[in-house]
Amino acid sequence: MLDRKLILQDPDLVSRNCLRRNVPCDIDRLVELEQERNQRLQTAQELNRLANEVSQSISKAGDAEDRAARIARGRELREQKDAAQAAHDALDAEILDLLRQIPNLTHPDAPEGGEEDAVEVGRGRTPIPAFDFPAKDHLELGRLHDLFDFEAGARVAGAGFYFLKNAAVRLDLALQHFAVTFLADRGFTPVTTPDLALTEILHGTGFIPRGPETQIYSIENTELNLVATAEITLGGMLADQTIEADRLPMRLCGLSHCFRTEAGAAGRASKGLYRVHQFTKVEMFAFTTPEDSDVMHDQMKSLECELFDALEIPYRVIDTAAGDLGGPAYRKFDLEAWMPGRGAAGEWGEVTSTSNCTDYQARRLNIRGKTAGQKGTWFVHTLNGTAIATGRAMIALLENFQQPDGSISVPAVLQPLMGTDRLRPIAGNGQA
C-alpha cells in the first residue's frame, strides 16, 4: 500500500495516479477519515492521561467520600477513553480498507491508456518463422504427438484441467530444469514453495482471495488459498522480517504450481494450454534497497529475454500501459511470444511479465531493511518476473519449431535434457 503520509501530503498526486490507472478511489474521503482518526486518537490519549492523573490522586483523598468520587471519576474517564479508542480503531479499519484499494504510484515513463496502448520496446533475436506450409496450432500438434488429454482432465477435475503425456511431460520438466539452472547460475537461490498461502499473505502481495472478481481458489472454512503464482509465497517468506542492507539484493528463483480460476476468460485466444486452471511456473523474485529496484527491474527483463533467446522463440517486449497495470506494479514489461497457431496467420501471446512493485508489497507485508550504523529502518522494494510458465512456453515452442512432416525440432539448449533433437508424430495419430 501507499504511505499514509504521502497521501495526506499530496492527495492530488494520488488522485491523479488513480485516474491514470483507471482505478476509482475516494482519496478525499480517506483524508477526511484520517483527520477524524487522528482527532479520536488525541482524544483517547488525553482521556488516558486524565484517568492516570485521577488514579494517582486517589491516595491523596481527604476522606472516604472523596476517595469514592475520585474512583468513580477515574472509571468514567476510562470508559470515555475506551469509547474513543474503539471509534479510532473502527476508523482505522475503514481507512485500511480504502488504502488496500489504492494502486501503487506509476513510473512516469509508463505509457498512458489501457491494454491496447502498450508500447513495443524491443524484439528478440529469433525472427518470426516463414513457413511454406499451413501452420498447425499446439492442439493439432498435440493430437499428432499424443501430448495432451483435456477430456480426461475435465472428467477428473473439470474444464480447464488437463493431463500432459509422453514428450510433453519431458518437455515440461526440461523447461523447468533449464530455467532453474539458468537463474541459479546467475545468482538466484532456487526454492520450491508451498502451493498454499494464508489469506493475509495474499493480501500482502496485493491479491484478492475472496469476492466475485477473485482469480484465487480458496479452501473453505480455512484461511488457506491455492497460490496463483510463486510471487505470493516468495514475498511472504520474509513477512514481518527486517533484512540487513548488506544482504540485499536478495534474489530468489521459485518453482511452484499455480492455480487460477480464470473467471470470465473465453475465446479462441484462450484455448488449449494458454489459459488453464493449473500450470507450473519458475518465478524470479527480488528484495532490494529502494535505490536499486529500477536497475534490478531492467536486469530481470534482460534475463527473461536471454531465456527466450536461448530457446530460439521469437518474441517482442512491451511496456505495459498505466491503465493495465495490476495494483502493486509501479512498472511492468511483458514478453509476448509469436504463436503461429493463433488466429488466421499467427499472433503474439504473453509468456512472461516482470514488475517493479517498489515498497507497495513490503508495506503490506512489513518487510523492512536496516543499514548498519544507522538508526531506524526502511521498507525494502520487491520485484517479480516470470522465468518460464511451462504451458505457454510449450505452446510457443511447439508451434514455432513444427516441421512440414508434423515433427517438432527441439531447441539446442533443451536437446541434452530431452535426449533428442526432434519429436516425431506417434504412428496412427493422423499425420497431415
Q: Count of helices? A: 13
Work out the strand percent. 15-25%
Helix content: 40-55%
**What characterizes the major β-sheet?**
8 strands, mixed
- Cα shape: elongated
Low-confidence stretches: none
Which structural category do the helix and sheet elements fall into?
alpha+beta
Overview features:
432 residues; alpha+beta; 3-stranded mixed sheet; 13 helices; 40% helix
Structure description:
By secondary structure, the protein is an alpha+beta fold. 40% of the residues lie in helices and 20% in strands. It contains 13 helices and 17 strands. The strands form 5 sheets. The chain has an 8-stranded mixed β-sheet. It has a 3-stranded mixed β-sheet with strand order 7-13-14, with no helix packed on it. A hairpin with a 7-residue loop joins strand 13 and strand 14 (378-379). It is elongated, with a radius of gyration of 27 Å. The chain starts with a helix and ends in a 9-residue tail after the last strand. The mean pLDDT is 94.
Topology overview:
Elements lengths: L3 H6 L1 H11 L5 H31 L6 H38 L17 E5 L14 H8 L2 E2 H8 L5 E2 L2 H18 L4 E4 L3 E3 H7 L18 E3 L3 H7 L5 E3 L5 E10 L18 E11 L4 H18 L4 E5 L11 E9 L7 E10 L3 H6 L2 E3 L7 E2 L1 E9 H11 L7 E2 L5 H4 L3 E2 L9
Helix pairs in contact: 3-4, 7-12, 8-9
Q: Outline of this structure?
A:
By secondary structure, the chain is α+β, with helices and mostly antiparallel strands. The protein is built from 13 helices and 17 strands. The protein starts with a helix and ends in a 9-residue tail after the last strand.
